Amino acid sequence: MDIKREVVHKPILLNYWYLFPIIAVLWLVWSYRDVFSDASYFVEREKLVTAKVEQGTFQVNVRASGLLKPAEIRWVASQVAGRVEQVLVKPGAQVEQGQLLVQLSNPELLREREKVQWELAANKADNHAALVSMESQLLDLENVVIAAEYDYQAAKLKLDAETQLIAQGNATVSQLDYKRSQLAVDQQLQFWQAQQQKTKKMKAKLAATQTAQQARINLIENNLQRMQEQVDALAIRAQQTGVVQQVSLELGERAQVGDSVALIADQQKLFAELQVPEVRIQDIVLGQLVVIDTRNSEIIGKVSRIDPAVTGGMVQVDVQLTDELPVDARPELTVDALIEISNIEQTLYVKRPMFAPRNTTTGLYKLVEQGGFARKTLVKLGQSSVNKIQIESGLQVGDEIIISDTSDWQDHQTIMIN
């Protein structure tokens, strides 16, 4: 038999119990709307980095990094071919100009020098013998000239005597003998003059021969001098005072003409080679003051050259060092640098926020209501330095802004800090 069940009706409010918590939450939000203001995002204070706006002289600097480079650097090259017998220096060694670095050997070059030496000696001996023979011939010719002069003078004396006798009417001298005397005088005069000309030509020949022989000797001596210079070049020496940076040859290695032997740099004459971002290079001009930081000391310099080309987003800037170099300064030392662009008097500035380019207007979060909130404020930025930026408008002295990363809440005008 069926038993009729009685239906028990629940109160309507119990069916919609979940509405009560929702209403309570809404009421609480409405009640504390003044506390939360219009904040739509919450940030923990420990995650924020803030900075206050200051006023004063703002130094515009550009930071760069680079290396110290030697202003005077020279590769020492091999002038002759040879095999390395000795390597007398290592990288880091202090050397003086003319100091022996590497000794080469080349037996063939030594034999060639000896051959030229013997050729020079033989030519000098042959030239000496030829000159002695020609000088002897010249001496004989000069003796003949003297004898011819004597014969001419004797014939002329006889002719003069006969002429005087004939003039006096003395018949002891026949006309035939007188004519013969005249003919003899003419013959002796011509012979004497001929011998003089012959002697003159012999002297000219002797001088020309001496010149030609001396030219040949000079040629051989030049060859010998060149060979000697090549032999001397087997001893490779430092061409300047400095520190050895690199030695390219090893013991027993064969060196060819023009091969690099050693790299020598003058450590007392250095300059800084800096890499400046291309976006800041328009601020750099020649002569600007630069402070070089070697990690242990600072060196003052000035911009001496700006590379016209951009490589990998960087521009090379050379800095002439005007201070005395510290003891830790050496070639290839990594350094940091601050290039002083300008000083702006009595302006507002603040530590540079993240993602705040110079010469732009951007939204920065300024702390309000005793630092409980931060409200987005449009700020016009000016020049920037290494870690500071100029404020042209939008903030006042003493305002505190968030300088850490705010990209997570950029769409919110106001945030609450707890």
The general outline is rod-shaped
CA-atom Rg in angstroms: 53 Å
CATH architecture of the largest domain: Beta Barrel
For this structure, what is the CATH homologous superfamily of the largest domain? Efflux pump adaptor protein, beta barrel domain
Number of strands: 21
CATH class identity of the largest domain: Mainly Beta
The percent range for helix content is: 25-40%
Order of helices and strands: HHHEEEEEEEHHEEEEEEEEEEEEEE
Instruction: State the separation between the terminal residues, measured CA to CA.
Output: 70 Å
CATH topology descriptor of the largest domain:
Elongation Factor Tu (Ef-tu), domain 3
Number of helical segments with 4 or more residues: 5
Textual characterization of the structure:
- This protein is α+β, with helices and mostly antiparallel strands and 418 residues long.
- It contains five helices and 21 strands.
- The protein is rod-shaped and about 185 Å long.
- The longest helix has 62 residues, at 107-168.
- Helix 4 (107-168) packs antiparallel against helix 5.
- It starts with 11 loop residues before the first helix and ends with a strand.
- It has helices spanning 12-15, 19-31, 33-36, 107-168, 175-232, and strands spanning 42-43, 50-52, 54-70, 73-77, 82-87, 94-95, 100-105, 235-237, 242-247, 254-255, 260-265, 270-277, 289-293, 298-306, 314-321, 334-351, 361-368, 373-384, 388-393, 400-402, 414-417.
- It folds into three domains: 35-69 and 269-417, Efflux pump adaptor protein, beta barrel domain (Elongation Factor Tu (Ef-tu), domain 3); 83-104 and 234-262, RNA polymerase II/Efflux pump adaptor protein, barrel-sandwich hybrid domain (OB fold (Dihydrolipoamide Acetyltransferase, E2P)); 107-231.
- A hairpin with a 7-residue loop joins strand 14 and strand 15 (314-321).
- 18% of the residues are buried.
